[in-house]
Amino acid sequence: MPNFLQCVVLDTVTNQFLMIPSWDPPQKTRDANYDDVMVRGRSEPHVFYSNTGLQVWQITLHLTSNLNMGDTLTPLSVKVQENFLESLTMPDYGAVPGAHAGVVNPPHPVRISILRMFDAIGTIRNLSFTYVEPFDMFTGFPHQIDATFSFHGRPVISSDEKPHGFADIRKSLPWGQDFQS
Fold this sequence. Notes:
Elements: E1 5-11, E2 17-22, E3 27-29, E4 32-37, E5 46-52, E6 55-64, H1 75-87, E7 110-114, E8 118-135, E9 142-155, H2 166-171
Antiparallel strand pairs: 1-2, 1-7, 3-6, 4-5, 6-9, 7-8, 8-9
């Protein structure tokens, strides 16, 4: 049995969740935006910091009903998991107390936790599914669906922890130590 990362996907509004294995570790990108401004009398541009975007994680999850893996899911339950993930990318047309009927609300915020390595709240974007053979001969549903998406979010920070900035990250680095040993 291969090792996998246990991933929990939680809808923070309804508190519904999925526990899904992931064999691929998430990949993180962070985009800091700087504006280059040409200043009269200078040969090089002056750089202005604009903002740092949210963390963007590329995550691949494997929705599977493989009895060899020790699970008891059926191809129908894999399809239900697919529908749950897809619903997290759709707008919510439900009535909000005190609002006009038919107001379109953004998708529900999602909390994704993968072991202790990753715990963030944000939105699922760019969701795609790959249907993997074999297919169930009675329902026609696949036994495995690979879900790949980008997750735009911010880390979950406990109440006693402050957000990390430049100085905090630099303090945690082991400056002057020999990394060869």
